[in-house]
Design brief:
Elements: E1 7-13, H1 14-22, E2 26-28, H2 40-52, E3 59-66, E4 73-79, H3 81-91, H4 109-112, H5 122-130, E5 132-138, H6 144-155, H7 163-170, H8 174-183, H9 186-190, H10 196-200, H11 203-217, H12 225-234, H13 242-260, H14 264-270, H15 273-286, H16 295-306, H17 311-317, H18 322-331, H19 339-353
Parallel strand pairs: 2-4, 3-5
Antiparallel strand pairs: 1-5, 3-4
Helix pairs in contact: 2-3, 8-11, 11-15, 13-15, 15-19, 18-19
Pfam family, one: GmrSD_N
Domain GmrSD restriction endonucleases N-terminal: 24-171
InterPro entries: GmrSD_N
Length: 359
Amino acid sequence: MKLIDSIDIQPQTIKWLSDLNSSGLLIVDDSFQRNYVWTKKNQVQLIESILMGYPIPEIYLWNTGTDSDSGDTCYSIVDGQQRTGAIFQYISNMFKLGDSSLNNNNECYERVKNRYFKDLEEDDKKAIWSYVFSVRIIRNSIEREKIVTMFLRLNSNNMTLNPQELRNAEFEGEFMKVAAELSELNFWEKNSLFRIADRRRMRDISFISTLLVFMKQGIQEDIRNSNLNAIYDLYNNHYPSKDKDIERFESVLEKIDSLIDNKIDRIALLRRQVHLYSLFTSIYGITIDHPQLSESQIQNYCDFIDNYDNEELLESYFPECIKDIYHYKSLAKEGTRDKGNRFGRHTAITKIMNSSRSN
């Protein structure tokens, strides 16, 4: 039987969806859906469309089973998290319809601007509750693997999903779990190395994945999206030395945190992944045989990063490797995923940190 023959199209109201959610019967499966990424403007404009009676893209739900005692059926959201999430938040009075996000030419503008759900007129509240979605319900008999394939096809040509978000749906094994676990370390939030929007779009996990690939395969390993998928697949079911890698990863981050030392200018430079990647790989290599960085290695990197744009001071501090510094700065302006580029930056930072200075 074709998959389409096991999907039932049903018109369902927001009230129906809300009741399911309130009863705990509507579940967001993180392996399908990315973190909540819509801006407030996106949310407001969705509610505006509903109030205007405009059509909204259909929602895909997967029937995950019926409780034999209560008769309640649970559904997993395969596609539609942002739409349903915005609606549930609005009817819970978690945001208002800010006038700057509304179209002031719409007939409802004056009536609904800057209003929470509780402040809407009765007819507008009823319009939201009774708004009908086209819901595609995937039957319980369909295997999860087929649903993942469908989700990937639904979104593979959709610019709203980036490669890491698609990997999140396709791979739910060991490598993904480790990358996700490491993304929750306090280091990232403490140093504000990723914006909230980047974390919502899983760009932090994508970057962490490239660091794990380096740890497992070396600096020369291809980290373009096609090969990242292959690495995810390779370590999906079995991740050798997982605990050791997590320990080493955390150890390198502790050293980077010490180097940053809450300095805003250092954080600003390391927000560029090209610099953070290079520092991580260099510290990792240096500390394989010597677990701790020496005071001179720490001082060298701090002098380098603190005077990154001051060529006169850099020449004074690092006369023996100034050519490496210029080479690094040149490579840092180019593509970050090229093998030769990554190796050149890694080599330069290692030389800088190990540099001997008379002053």
